[in-house]
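Weekly puzzle thread! Below is a chain. First person to post its structure in token form gets bragging rights.
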Amino acid sequence: MVTKVLVPLLGEGVEEVTVTKWLKKEGDSVDELEPLLEVNTDKVDTEIPAPASGTVLKILAEEGVPAKVGAVLALIGKPGESVEGSSAVVQPRQDTKAEGQKSASPQPETFDAPPSTREEIGFISPVVAKIAAEHGVNLQEIQGTGLNGRITKNDVLAFVERGKQKETPAAGRPSHAAPAVTPTMGDQLIKHTVIRKQIAEHMVMSKHTSPHVLTVMEADMSRVVKHRSANKEIFERDGVNLTFTAYFMLAVVAGLKAHPNVNSSWTEEGILVHKDINLGMATSLGVDGLIVPVIKSADNLSLLAMTRTVNDLANRARSKKLQPDEVKGGTFTLTNHGISGSLFAFPVINQPQCGILGVGAMQKRVVVIPADDGTRDDAIAIRPMVYLSFVFDHRILDGASADAFLMKVKETLENWA
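Winning reply:
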């Protein structure tokens, strides 16, 4: 009996995945629950195990091509077994209506793309057809970037965005297309990975969406350094590596509690202040890019619990073992760019959040210790200092409110007990 390998539901709101790598090829044998392929969604790579033992009879989804939840990826069976009639794509599961309710129309919802035939433009996924229909896009005008020139969802969205920019160019500034780049002898073209494309699209979208403003303060980390030195060995007994990131996370929590409007998102109706504090933690994946796992309900965590969570998410992010739900729902993000030696930076806001805090490299610097109510003179001392770079959405915050938040973060670090 032929077994269908389907795209599983990998998390709430995940409607499609992109096949990044097949671990088996047609004709290979595979054991039940053995990794069969890797898929990507929201920059998270996930292995899909084989649902049964047997031979890979047919692979239906190509690498680099999106596939909707419920679609057939491959067929597994006995060698030589017929796959006729088994390769139809399974439609995505529909939400079950409440008991007693009846659908007004039994036919599935369809979306008609503007005039252009599938024979002319090749295969179109339902998602692409839906977006094209909603925006009145003629798919014949779009150059696909997918496998074999296939038109992807991102191709349609980029086409729509370019159309909007042409209609409403910035005041006093002409609209220019990106210049074409012509390769010369010896140049090497490194194809974009799925993660790199997603990073690029999100960063460009963020800069187009929010007016980014940067404010910088520096914090004396003397008390944090002493506290970490005194407790590092104790934490190691519990199998936890006490990093400075956990301190910064809890300082951000203190800042967001004192200034809830920073834990918010912009909407056309008003500023949406989030009840939960879910902190994103930008994590480098080396040449593959970066990913932002989210620490849910961070305001409920102690230093030990925060450190354990930071360790776990960072390790699983680098070993590509995160779940899609673990990179969703963030309300504020911290990026520790100082790990690579950077002193301060201008991070890009992780939409739809209000801001992002960048932490620079800690350095011992000479600072002035101010006089204490006339009992002593100003003094010069060497202290471990760090720059805190806060980038915020100027639609939501102004300079004073942004600085008040950053000052609370600074004070929390400097007065750590």
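Puzzle host: Confirmed. Bonus trivia for everyone else. Helices lie at 118-121, 126-135, 153-167, 194-209, 222-237, 244-258, 303-318, 399-414.
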